[in-house]
Structures are given as C-alpha cells and as structure tokens.
Amino acid sequence: MGLDAGTPLRRVATHHKGENSSILFDQELTLSTGFGSNAVTIWRNDKYPAELVDKDPVSTDPVIYTQGSLIRVVDFPANSSGHNHRTASLDYGIVTQGELEMALADGSKTIVRAGDVVIQQATLHQWNNLTDNPARVIFVLLPSEKTVAGVDVTETGVPEKYLPKA
C-alpha cells in the first residue's frame, strides 16, 4: 500500500480505552468512483473542536466537507477534466503523485506536481489531469467563512448529495 494513485490505502485509527490507548481501526480502504474522480474519505469529524469518538465517523454519506474536519484521498484519472466547483472550506491539498492543472474562475491556471501543497480558500476551481498518468492528492478540509470581503463564497457546482446536512 502506498501513496500512488490506484493503490489501496491503510487507515489506522486510535482511541482511548480508560487510561490506555488502543487501536480502533486497522483496515484497508478502497476508493470509489464519483464526482469525476475516485475518492475515499479517511476520517471525518462534524464538530469543532473535534469530538473524539469510538466508532467509525465515516458513513455511507458521501459528504465532501463538513463543519468540523475531513481528510480524503482523491485519484484523478489520466487525461481527465473536472468541473468548476467551490465549497465553503479551507482546503489543504498535498499532491503525492502526478501533476494536475488547477484552473481558477478568473482564468488563471497553474500546474501542481507531486510534493506541492495547495491551499484552497473557498475559491471556484477545477482540477484537470492533462497527462497520460494518474494523479493522487490528499485533501484536508476545514469549514470556512461563507462571505469574504462582501463576496458570497458558499457552495457552487457541488451536487446536493455531497453537501453536509444542515
């Protein structure tokens, strides 16, 4: 198991049992298709500060961000184009394999490669893989303000089933 696109991921989560810590989960996760890429949510917390739980907080609910925190891995297939979207979140994206074009609403574009870190601040954006090789990004999402400098930065272009429940 590794960081390369298409390879399974291993999730190891710990929990407190009395005064001792213990392993809660040690399992392999597989990515599922949806939203123009293959993805899996590793862990999610719907509150801030984080609620420490003794059960798996990742349900079958396909939410792509939350009012707490979320970590997910996304594989972008070779020669694929995404679509413009925005979530009301501060996203940290760590590119672990391949390269992607990040296109923004103002028409600006930049290429990010393995080892690069993207800080996405609730901007309308699109991910495009213009290469013949897959790319993998680990995203950590945190909730953000919904208005910046008087501009509405709420969800755009995100199917309703992926939005957090109110």
UniProtKB/TrEMBL annotation:
InterPro entries registered for this protein in UniProt: Cupin_2, OryJ/VirC-like, RmlC-like_jellyroll, RmlC_Cupin_sf
Domain Cupin type-2 intervals: 74-140
CDD domains documented for this protein: cupin_BLL6423-like
Name the record gives this protein: Cupin type-2 domain-containing protein
Annotated organism of origin: Fusarium torulosum
